[in-house]
Amino acid sequence: MSVDTARPAAPRPAGLDNRVVVDGTALSWRDLPELRLPAPVALLAHRARYALAAARHHAVHGTELLLTTAGRADSVLRAELSEAGFTVIDTGGADLPPSRPRAGEPGRLWLLTSGTTGRPKRVGHTLASLTTVRGRQPGRTWLCPYAPGSYAWWQVVTLSLTQPGQHLVVVEPEQLDDWPTLAATHGVDAASGTPTFWRRALHRDPAALARVPLRQLTLGGEPVDQTILDRLREVYPTTRISWIYASSEVGAAIVVHDGRAGFPVEWLDRPAPGRPTLGVRDGELVVTSPYHGVGLAGPIRTGDRVQVVDGRVLITGRLDSDEINVGGSKVSASAVRDVLTAHPQVAWARVGARRAPLLGHLVVAEVVPTGTVGPPDEAALARWCADRLPEYAVPRRIRLLPEIPVKETLKSDV
Amino acid sequence: MTELTRARIRDLMGQVLANQGKVLPDDDDADLREIGFRSLDFSELALRVEDETDEELNFDAAGLRRIATVGDVLDFLADLQRP
């Protein structure tokens, strides 16, 4: 990669004059470094500045691009990309030429899946298929806490690149713990994050969070339960709170604004032109979407478990990890997690299985207390669960953690 | 491997019951059915022993057939730790 300080010659995206705050400095899209990138290229960005510059480069020149963070690309993935014809550019390290050079595919953008089902795999998109917000939006300053190149990152970035008045404040990984201060300083009034991201913010410093003047608050990337929606509503009584279901494979498929977990059962199997069709097959969410990644067509099994409760379709967790077999009785880990997080002194919980003699597995949990009063002890939490769950579903070991764990994906357990 | 004493296993058994609002009787002859100590509780107790000894326990239901009292549980888990 080379960096040219000259400004791009052919500025086409409509949002190029939008403000972009990166490394705490306010710029515009035009002020970002001008990169000279080969095609196809896999850019492994160490800093958001170069990831944004690469996104702008693609929007202007349309050359084939795969964008991700250096941390996600181990040596095996780098070799695979080289084999697939990419020049692998590490903005903080050594580059790798393509082992099988090929011509770039104009307009192609590649995303890496989050790797929840194994090794990351490439999903093909275009800037158009990633630009799911097309109608004119009210002017907003968006927080962008996501890792560069993820589906959620592209959602915020394409919005700012394509619509005037959609500004961007980027959170670097080292700023993640104190993002509310950064956001308040730069007038962020719209933010999107995972439930884990929001739980951490509520847990670390709810007063700092409340100082961010949000008019739009969005959750996605993990199951969204009623407790987190209610806790955010307490901090933001008049803000529009939405949750979104999206993935690299099916695109943005569900958006819900009514402040409730799940979506109305009436939305199932209801075809509408230009919109995804939602279905449930054997307890699994199935999506047929115009925003599918390239090569995907028809109904896509998402691997996400759903339950219909009181007229709402709840997306509760991954099918392959949600079910725990306790001596022949089936337990939904997400149902137990929801019971724990509903405890007033619990900020976050993770539930899983542990191998145990006699019964095969027992339910176990890790919990982060809110810290507002003395932390609940294991016995109190076990009794809370016993009042709300079958005996075999009650976590038998509950470990208290001091801080909510989070990965680069802003998720904690997938 | 850390070998737990019978007294320490009794403490852990007490914790399992205390989490359910129950009290472990002092009498080793107390009947497990009467104090409400069941297979889920036995598995949990095994996990607690594993956590303290850092060693995985292996046994099956057949080995538990003759276990009826608190003392039987303590003896069984104490014996299980011995090579």
UniProtKB/TrEMBL annotation, chain A:
Pfam families: AMP-binding, AMP-binding_C. Residues 105-280 form the AMP-dependent synthetase/ligase domain. InterPro entries: AMP-bd_C, AMP-bd_C_sf, AMP-dep_synth/lig_dom, ANL_N_sf. Keywords: Ligase. Residues 338-408 form the AMP-binding enzyme C-terminal domain. Belongs to the ATP-dependent AMP-binding enzyme family. This is Acyl-CoA synthetase (AMP-forming)/AMP-acid ligase II. The lineage of its organism: Bacteria, Bacillati, Actinomycetota, Actinomycetes, Micromonosporales.
